[in-house]
């Protein structure tokens, strides 16, 4: 039995989902939803039957007869009446009268649809991909800031009675017995459980030790692999699972600038990363594309993670993706235009990342299956620069690589195929600077030229030179000799300048004395 407020909120959620700017989980598990599990269930089930309910609404003309009902509210109420658990709407008397008045007509229209489709029961009306969706295993990332993989494995064995099975890959993951789990075959911080395992009330999930994250979306942090102490940018950070993964691999040592333009989503990132125990993340409510790469604040950024907005065409086992399959039809002109727009945006994020003077590695990923968003974006990015190349070490242990002929060195990028790899459809690549110390040398040379040409007093010149020495000491040891030569050259030039100033001063004094005599 549901209250009027519950039905009204459910109708508003349907309206939000119709805009295709959020997901079922995000909107039903939001803070303002009181009965979260119940709301998640009714929204999921209503969406499954939505095409049928829409036809019933049109044939019965209920909206013409009941002016106070919105279409979304009618959809929710009709679902609960014909397909759900509502018998008489006793707890919602405001809707009870309306539904009782129209019950016979609504039932009659449902019967007609069943006869036409030769359906014995309601479930027979559903398309096959909704009745029997492709189900993935439940992947759980161990948050290394809170515990270790071995400790978590031990917890499940001793406290929860689970049996650890050998690590396997691909289609072998299709068969899981209850109360069993595995370590992941490829990623050291990932565990795999049966698909129906629910962790939302588990103490290790509640305290942030476990992160519910698909295996493929764990690839980018491992591809980027910044060592502890690194300075990192996550250019499209919310909701924050990949950001917290980077922090986990870095052991909270270093700094991560986490950008997101959406204030609400950034708030979600703050909550999730705080729960995960991340202390090295600085959330920034700005557009990454509008940041100044030469801002001193980002001078030490050497790693950038990019997971920009995409079509989401690789996501499976999620109802909101199944119901929007028409939006993935690449023969549709509107879909083609949308994919082109997305790919242009994705390219712009990579090209902007290229501009950061000291960046060494950039990971680029999408949860898309489309070449235009994946290999084509990588190819266009490489064509726009001579300073970066594809890293040959992009999840090297992963067998499935890029599409043949799509980009030079297609074997340097990685793809996933849900029905064979048992993960969501995903693409990941990694760019690395060809000469990572070249920009540092240019920066020092430019700074030195500025020092020599400026008309500052000697103390200011010496102070600037000290700053350059500090900067050069932070570069890689392999380049220290070149950097020191640059500094020594500068120091010599400055000494010459000092001597010249002293000589000019001496000549000036001599000339003055001669004039006085």
Automatic annotation (TrEMBL):
It catalyses: a cytidine in 25S rRNA + S-adenosyl-L-methionine = a 5-methylcytidine in 25S rRNA + S-adenosyl-L-homocysteine + H(+). PROSITE patterns: SAM_MT_RSMB_NOP (PS51686). GO terms for cellular component: nucleolus. Keywords: Methyltransferase, RNA-binding, S-adenosyl-L-methionine, Transferase. It comes from the Eukaryota. Residues 437-517 are annotated as: Disordered. Residues 128-434 form the SAM-dependent MTase RsmB/NOP-type domain. Residues 494-510 have a biased composition (Basic residues). Residues 471-484 have a biased composition (Low complexity). One of its GO terms (biological process) is rRNA base methylation. Residues 440-458 have a biased composition (Basic and acidic residues). S-adenosyl-L-methionine binds at residues 236-242, 260, 307. GO terms for molecular function: RNA binding; RNA methyltransferase activity. The active site is at residue 367. InterPro entries: MeTrfase_RsmB-F_NOP2_cat (IPR049560), MeTrfase_RsmB-F_NOP2_dom (IPR001678), NSUN5_7_fdxn-like (IPR049561), NSUN5_RCM1_N (IPR048889), RCMT (IPR023267), SAM-dependent_MTases_sf (IPR029063). The keyword Secreted does not apply. Gene3D superfamilies: Sun protein, domain 3 (3.30.70.1170), Vaccinia Virus protein VP39 (3.40.50.150). Residues 459-470 have a biased composition (Acidic residues). Belongs to the class I-like SAM-binding methyltransferase superfamily. RsmB/NOP family. This is S-adenosyl-L-methionine-dependent methyltransferase. It comes from Anaeromyces robustus. The lineage of its organism: Eukaryota, Fungi, Fungi incertae sedis, Chytridiomycota, Chytridiomycota incertae sedis.
